[in-house]
Write a structure and sequence with these properties.
Layout (H helix, E strand, L loop, with lengths): L1 E10 L4 H17 L3 E2 L4 E10 L3 H11 L3 E3 L2 H6 L5 E4 L6 H10 L3 E4 L7 H14 L3 E3 L7 H11 L6 E9 L25 H16 L3 E9 L4 E3 L5 E3 L5 E8 L4 E7 L10 E7 L2 E5 L4 E5 L23 E2 L9 H15 L7 H20 L3 E2 L6
Parallel strand pairs: 1-3, 1-5, 3-4, 5-6, 6-7, 8-13
Antiparallel strand pairs: 2-3, 8-14, 9-12, 9-18, 10-11, 12-13, 14-15, 15-16, 16-17
Helix pairs in contact: 1-8, 4-5, 5-9, 7-9
Bound molecules: nicotinamide-adenine-dinucleotide.
């Protein structure tokens, strides 16, 4: 076995996603398992360079995990020929500029979504990466959730017959920050800082719908700000200028209709923080983060509407659990592995900056639909 070190500049590791999911649960987890075996006698050994604005915070993380390299100088890191990959999990508004520099410097790039704040910027990134011949990937973690992997298995196995509709319910209560601290960063609630639930969640819904059921052909959305004032990390009140809930209807290629509610102002009366119900002519399924339950046509009860008598059936009991039949790794790590194989072993990879741009496009058109009060076609984008 030869060990090949791959040096990854990780920008934004002091943040929620950058630290927990990407550094600890993905890159450090890969090191704990001895690196990534490429299957050709090579083991990739990821060597992160922690990049950011606050040196003391980076050094603190490096010490906690026994890492050697930190930097606050993006340009210097990008000028270093020893750096193979640039990864970005900064706040959304800082992403496009940093990614542009990294691609221009000839680095392979892997990034959180949304890739940019608008479609033009997202497409420009995809085109630049294509012209420069670098490899590029965008985080699409939801598709790797155990519940959605099981749902995909059902779709691939033809369980549903003709798929009619998809109902998604995502959200939970995010505290305003006054009497209990908010559990999400305050920039998420300020449009001027790249916040908003549409730009955050519609990119996820784009690839989930696209990969499982068909490309989104049109969108009709109503985005709103239910909670107009919140309190930030310092306990200071601020105006919540970004949308914190969005109610969307999506027409899909192949004819299914999807309807997804996304909200940070909803209290959870569900089994999981996101759930999708899929109804098809042959059967239905309800998938969440981890679980997936089905009801086949042959086992569908016959409910009869009669408000004069109390319900005698426990409807949830009429569904059957889909077994795991596999061990599911952390989704972020699974996707890092695919991307590293793409970079170092040329494995095929389609979750790229063009796919990322589709997510940005859906968010942009969703917001336009809401502002104009109409349904909007989603044209297919090309490089
Ligand atoms: N894939 C997912 O499920 C998922 C979930 C949440 C967030 N995200 C995305 O990840 C990115 C980071 O989100 P987060 O929740 O980790 O945010 P966060 O606020 O916790 O972290 C932001 C990071 O960006 C850095 N940063 C750089 N420039 C900054 C600036 N001008 N102002 C403030 N911080 C700056 C911060 O230091 C920090 O390291 C966002 O683009 C978001 O859309 C993805």
């Amino acid at each position: 076995m030869t060990r090949k070190t791959v040096r990854i500049a990780m920008n934004g590791v002091t943040g929620r996603m950058g630290y927990r999911q990407h550094l600890v649960r993905s890159i450090l987890a890969l090191r704990e398992q001895g690196g990534l075996d490429l299957g050709d006698g090579t083991v990739l050994w990821p060597e992160p360079v922690l990049l950011g604005r606050r040196e003391h915070a980076l050094r603190e993380i490096a010490e906690r995990h026994g890492l050697d390299h930190v930097s606050t100088d993006l340009d210097a890191v990008l000028a270093d020929p020893g750096i193979d990959i640039y990864f970005d999990s900064q706040v959304t508004s800082a992403r496009e500029e940093a990614l542009t520099k990294a691609i221009a410097a000839g680095k392979h790039v892997y990034t959180e979504k949304p890739t940019a704040t608008g479609l033009d910027g997202a497409l420009a990134l995809a085109r630049l990466a294509h012209d420069k011949g670098v490899k590029h990937g965008v985080v699409q973690d939801k598709i790797f959730l155990p519940g959605l992997l099981k749902l995909k298995r059902l779709v691939d196995g033809g369980f549903f017959g003709r798929i009619l509709s998809v109902r998604g319910e995502f959200g939970y209560w995010v505290f305003e920050g006054d009497w209990q601290p908010a559990q999400r960063p305050s920039w998420n609630y300020r449009a001027e800082d790249g916040g908003g639930i549409v730009v955050d969640m519609f990119p996820h819904w784009e690839y989930v719908l696209h990969e499982l059921f068909g490309r989104v052909r049109s969108v009709q959305a109503l985005a709103t700000t239910h909670i107009p004032q919140r309190w930030d990390e310092q306990g200071k009140p601020y105006d919540a200028t970004a949308d914190d809930a969005a109610y969307g209807v999506f027409e899909l290629e192949g004819g299914a209709i999807a309807q997804i509610n996304s909200s940070w102002a909803v209290r959870v009366h569900r089994d999981e923080l996101v759930e999708f119900q899929v109804d098809g002519t042959e059967g239905s399924a309800v998938a969440g983060l981890r679980r997936c339950r089905v009801q086949h046509r042959s086992a569908t009860p016959r409910p009869v509407w009669n408000p004069d008598v109390p319900a005698t059936e426990v409807f949830r009991d009429q569904w059957q659990e889909v077994p795991d039949n596999a061990e599911f790794d952390n989704g972020f790590k699974a996707q890092w592995e695919l991307f590293l194989r793409h970079v170092h072993a040329d494995a095929p990879y389609h979750r790229d900056l063009l796919a990322g741009a589709r997510g940005v496009q859906l968010a942009e058109l969703g917001l336009r639909s809401s502002a104009e009060g109409r349904r909007i076609d989603v044209p297919e984008i090309v490089l």
